[in-house]
UniProtKB/TrEMBL annotation:
The lineage of its organism: Bacteria, Pseudomonadati, Pseudomonadota, Gammaproteobacteria, Alteromonadales. It holds the Pfam family DUF2177. Keywords: Membrane, Transmembrane, Transmembrane helix. The keyword ATP-binding does not apply. It comes from Aliiglaciecola lipolytica E3. InterPro entries: DUF2177_membr. The chain crosses the membrane at residues 5-25, 45-65, 72-90, 110-128. This is Transmembrane protein.
Length: 136
């Protein structure tokens, strides 16, 4: 349980920081422009908080804990596969069924989700590997 919690802090912390920078600074204007007319005035908090909590837990369970004794590149690669599948399902479904969902946002968000999941998994693995010696 202790290993899970340490890994979870690494995954969720990295994910929130990187996604905050991405959505709040780097890609904010392109998302707003591309999705004009589709966005709410204010965003309900519960859905996105639930996503971050559950997705971080899934990343720890499916990638970090399974790779505690693997090299860092393997953790990053497996995290990328998880991100590719999860963000692909979200973006490709939106593109397929929502009128006006932009292809550019589909590809950009899919690539971002792949990277941020990989980096977050690696971060959780690194934290456990360097701070919790009993896991090795």
């Amino acid at each position: 349980m202790k290993v899970f919690l340490i890994a979870y802090l690494g995954v969720a912390g990295c994910y929130l920081i990187l996604d905050g920078i991405w959505l709040g600074l780097v890609a904010k204007n392109s998302y707003l422009e591309a999705m004009q007319g589709m966005l709410r005035e204010s965003y309900p908090v519960l859905p996105w908080v639930t996503f971050y909590i559950l997705y971080s837990a899934a990343a720890v369970y499916l990638v970090v804990l399974k790779n505690l004794h693997s090299p860092g590149w393997q953790v990053f690669f497996d995290g990328a596969i998880l991100g590719l599948a999860a963000y692909g399902a979200y973006n490709l479904t939106n593109y397929a069924i929502l009128e006006g969902w932009p292809l550019g946002i589909t590809l950009k968000d899919w690539a971002w989700g792949t990277f941020v999941t990989a980096a977050s998994c690696w971060s959780g693995w690194w934290l456990v590997s360097n701070l919790y010696q009993d896991a090795a």
